[in-house]
Write a structure and sequence with these properties.
Elements: H1 19-32
């Protein structure tokens, strides 16, 4: 079996600009498309 590196996406922004809201919606969208997504 071929193993591929795990894709990683990062965000940075000033405090209070909506990063958490963006990531929450993005994770829901990715999961709806059958992708594995998480945040920590």
């Amino acid at each position: 079996m071929i193993q591929y590196p795990l894709p990683t996406l990062g965000f940075c922004a000033y405090s209070g600009t909506g990063e958490t809201t963006l990531l929450t919606q993005l994770i829901l969208l990715l999961k709806a498309r059958g992708l594995c997504a998480s945040a920590w």
